[in-house]
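Our platform keeps sequence and structure together, in a single record for each protein. Because each token names a local backbone shape, the row as a whole describes the fold. One such record is reproduced below, unchanged from the form in which we store it:
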Amino acid sequence: MTVRIDDLDRKILVQLQRDGGQSLDEIAKIVGSSKTPVWNRIRKMRDAGIIKQQTFLLDAETLGFEACFFVLIRTSEHDADWQAKFLKALLDRDEVQEAHRLAGDIDYILKVRVANARAYDSFYQALISEVKVHNVTALLSMEEIKSTTHLPL
């Protein structure tokens, strides 16, 4: 279901994506409105599910999570029981920042953030002890060129 938003809603969303910590006064001034209508629109967009949550982005490297691995997983298991165990294993691990089920030769791709290769190996050993996978390939990101949560509004 698509929710209709207008230009003012888009301007508000752009500001929230840019910096969710801005005050309502700051956002209202930038988008050319006043505080109460901006608050009402934000509330309506939350209620409609357009705004999922408010959060802060942390600097992973500054906090000691210097290694980012993209993990490609192939499995020969596709039944509901295996999928439930796999999903639980991913949800139980904070190292997994993203997980996607794919079309094509690779079944899943994970974005895993850890301190170093040894920490990745611990993650890997724990994962394969819980769920059977056919093949796992880990790719170390040498440099993050672009990372954003912004949608092109």
Notes: The chain has two domains: 7-47, 67-140. The chain is about 40% helix and 20% strand. The longest strand covers residues 67-74. The two ends are 18 Å apart (CA to CA).
